[in-house]
Amino acid sequence: MNSTFDIIDEGMIAQQPETGPTAVAACSRCVIIDSDELVCTFSVQSALGQNDFKKVMVRSPDGGSTWSDPTYIWPHLHSSLSIIGSISKGRKGELILSGIQIPIDRAGESFWSEATEGMKQNALFFANSSDGGANWSDPTSVPLPIPGSAENPGVLTVISDGAWICCYSPYNNFDPDIKVDRNQVVWMRSEDEGKSWSHGSMLRFDNADSTAAEAWVIELVDGRLLGACWHIAGQDDKDMPNAYALSSDGGRTWTPTNNTGILGQSCALAALPDGRALLVYNQRKHGEPGIHLALARPTSDNFGLEINEPVWKATTRTRNNTAGNHNDWQDYAFGEPSVLPLPDGTVLVSFWKIQPDARGIDYVRVRLPE
User: Fold this and answer.
1) CATH level 3 topology of 6-367
2) Which of 210, 302, 188 is CA-nearest to residue 255?
């Protein structure tokens, strides 16, 4: 049996200019429209940290080898809302965009406060398309169930019982007097397509100072839900192994938080038809810098790691030689990978990069071991 990943193709989904309102691209997520056509959405902004995210979409007619030029999804909202989020597919083929929306009060403002180490107060959102992404509803706002802001890069998953499930990491906002319960990842579940939501803790850490980032939740083939995140240990900004938990009742209750054994940072998940899971993640500090991919068969006691290898190697891990810690995020040189299983048995890994050779959204196509 071949026990390693085979890199069969690499290229750019979108290339960004050095400066201007679209100089930075982030949060690339792809879905399959039919056997050959893919859609990829991502957000563009003028610089890391600026509160001017604009959602764009590109298409590939040939399974990801070539891509159209980006088109804006909500140009009429550019001056009032900064929007970043992820695309997913419902059980009837409809497309769903979900993520966070941040109000814009003045041009050129940041969504980040160093004083509170927090994000400008935001809300979750979702939007729908019934025609393959040609037309989209305006974002529907989803208020947060607990105090604070949300970081929500993961997809909204429509699970087998028809419910919607998503998750987010609570963050401080700009108000220093608001106490935020950051020692968790929050799950949210809707049984009426977003009209009402229940919530609880998907992941909870033993260390009271620990925080989470880049959380995802997916449904595995056997109906269990798998949630995972970047686990950051308190005041020293130290990376802990990526955390995970499982749910056997549609996200209402979760196994105790466990660790994957992987010292990664930003991560994303995908389910495979054979019951296993893919976890793709950034590696800036604890191994060869780049995008790594792990193949696992998780249980509540063990993540069941089978393969864990780099699939893309970075020339530079940060742009100004910072340590690559969570609080160095405005200096990152690549990030936010996602992975999509394709009909031919390969998987498409996409991520943003600001590297010496190019900047924009890159992809790598990977063949899994037989």
Assistant:
1) Neuraminidase (2.120.10)
2) 302
